[in-house]
Amino acid sequence: MNGFFSSLRLWFAPARVREEGETPDYRFSLANERTFLAWVRTALALVGGGFAVDQFLPDLRWAWRIGLSLALLAVGAMCALRAVNHWVRCELAMRRSEDLPVTRFPALLSLAVGAVALIMVVVVLFGWAEQ
Amino acid sequence: MTETVRDPGLQPERTRLAWRRTTLSCTVAAVLAGKQALQGGPTPLGLLAVAASLALWLAFVALAHRRIRSLSVPRPGVLPVRVAWSAAGCVLAFTLFSAAVVR
User: Fold this and answer.
1) Residue B87, class by beta-carbon neighbours within 10 Å (0-12 exposed, 13-18 middle, 19+ buried)?
2) Can you tell me the ipTM of this complex?
């Protein structure tokens, strides 16, 4: 929990990142930046998926359609926030030459995406559509 | 003549391409958002939503362009935290926008 609050402080005082430790090899920072961008793309894909559920499954019952759509959008928003948090934490760890932070987020995300996909298959197969 | 150090791993170039890929993803999200906003025909509110999604997309393109330009030196600096937040902010704005227009 302490780690969470210290990283929260860094969100709002970004200049502090540069004060810590020493600047790593620029190639490591660029690799970290690319990982961050990959997470941003994942977030954008989830947001796009939220739109797609709403637009391309018009026969679905309203509650299912909106529920799945909003679930995907919420996961997308979490993914974007977490991308910045993880990027800052990795950058700090490299500066302090500590181990990189490990998280459960990728596992949780894949479970959530799998659950949404499964629900979608069930809903479409069993025809919980209108009529 | 200045010596240009070539990075054998092409790290700056790969990072530039990663920004381009992300811009492409952002374009897809913006197009879907615009389509969503015009689902019920071109109402004034719908057109306003399309303009908002276009503005978000332009903001992201400008952000990516500036970062890509700053990456075209032999030893580029670290991504500024402000830029990281702006990129994530664009995604969050799309999320809020879509939560508002999904019906």
Assistant:
1) buried
2) 0.86
